[in-house]
């Protein structure tokens, strides 16, 4: 029995897709091509973790949201879209998972 474990390489996407499903699919392709064993996304649910009164805290020239609620809402995927991403990852023979962050 070998005590040596082979490490797994996880491609961390997080929220880098910014709610763009095409971009999310392209990350799966890139991770697979790069030799990653898995790909990890983050999910957020606007209704659960923010309100229309919660100002967006991070300002930069690439992201322009007035509230955190707007940001979370615009980056959410539907259950069907998550399933499409999972199916895509399966076809690329890469482990697919995501974490859900609630406050």
Task: Describe the structure in your own words.
This protein has 103 residues and is an alpha/beta fold. It has a single domain (10-100), classed as Transcription Regulator spoIIAA (2-Layer Sandwich). It has helices at residues 21-34, 46-49, 68-75, 79-91; strands at 10-14, 38-43, 95-100. Strands 1-2-3 form a three-stranded parallel beta sheet, covered by helices on one side. α1 (21-34) links the parallel β1 (10-14) and β2 (38-43). α1 (21-34) packs parallel to α4 (79-91). The longest helix has 14 residues, at 21-34. It is elongated and about 55 Å long. The model has no long low-confidence stretch (mean pLDDT 86).
TL;DR?
This protein has 103 residues and is an alpha/beta fold.
